[in-house]
Amino acid sequence: MASESTFNLSELSQEHIDEFVATTADFWPAYHAGLQAPYAVYKQYRNMGPEEYYALCARSDADKIAVKVLQDFPVLKGEFPVSIGVGDILTNYRYIVTEAGSATNIPLHALTHYDIQSSAQDTRNDLMVKYLRGGSEQTVRLDEWIKDEIVRAVRNAAEFDDLNEIQKAILETSTYNIKRKHPSLTVPMIEMWKVPEGPKEGCFEGMGCYKLPIPDQHKELLKRVDKMME
After folding, report:
1. What average pLDDT does the structure give for the chain?
2. Residue-wise DSSP of the chain
3. Listed residue (149, 157, 188, 154) closest to 170, CA to CA
4. What is the pLDDT of residues 86-116, one digit of tens each?
5. Which of 2, 19, 1 is nearest to 170 (CA)?
6. What integer is the mean pLDDT of 73-83?
């Protein structure tokens, strides 16, 4: 049954943040590990090594948008994106709806309804989301959404049931709200994976990429050509 956390955020401490909120170093391994979940959408990447998968995400516009949206919220350790839609993000713990630049954060433990509304009185062809916030049920209607089968699979997995009340309270709020109430707290913000810089594969330092092997007698000439082209 859907419910809100009973933990009072006024009691939140730096120790709680350090214990439960993910850093960038925590987030990316969790994202890679999530590919093994039975509800994973991106199963085709399961056999990729971590570094290869991170580099793939670093080139993905969808992942860049997802990370940017998640930066407004404290991401829990063990939390990872499951599906990224048009302005929407589903993780194993929450659903985030973005509309006109504003984000609505809906923890799955507080989600009460996610389905296309159909009745004789309501003929709109959209999806209705209902969730608990501040002791009352709120409603959001979506013109575009992540498939309800995907959301249902993540909800049925119910990984959020393993969260304690402090974790749920952190999941329910934003980084802005934590800082507003606790200015002295430091809340980690996840960052996009940065591909390590280094010489291109098959190249040697100080040159553009040339097919190797290059005869030694040509290397100095090519270096001079590179210098002239800078």
Report:
1. 86
2. --------GGG--HHHHHHHB--HHHHHHHHHHGGGSTT-S-GGGTTS-HHHHHHHHHT-HHHHHHHHHHTTSPPBTT--EEEE-SSEEEESSEEEEEETTEEEEEEGGGEEEEEE---SS----SEEEEEEETTEEEEEEESS---HHHHHHHHHHTGGGG--HHHHHHHHS-HHHHHHH-TT-------PPPPPP-PPTT--TTS---PSP--HHHHHHHHHHHHHH-
3. 188
4. 779 999 999 999 987 789 999 999 999 998 7
5. 19
6. 98
Q: How many CB atoms neighbour CB 51 within 10 A?
A: 13
Q: Measured between alpha carbons, how far is residue 230 from residues 174, 202, 203, 205, 225 in Å?
A: 46, 20, 17, 15, 9
Cβ(39)–Cβ(150) below 8 Å? yes
Per-residue three-class SS string for 66-111: HHHHHCCCCCECCCCEEEECCCEEEECCEEEEEECCEEEEEEHHHE
What whole-number distance in Å separates Cα of residue 223 and Cα of residue 54?
A: 33
**pLDDT tens digit string along 173-193?**
999 999 999 999 999 999 999
pTM: 0.81
Q: Are 83 and 146 in contact (CB under 8 A)?
A: yes
Q: Among 56-65, 142-151, 161-170, 210-219, which stretch is predicted with the lowest mean pLDDT?
A: 210-219
Residues 85 and 142: their CA atoms lie apart, in Å, by: 12
Quote the tokens at residue 192.
């996009």
Q: Which residue in the block uniquely carries the two structure tokens 């590990």? A: 33
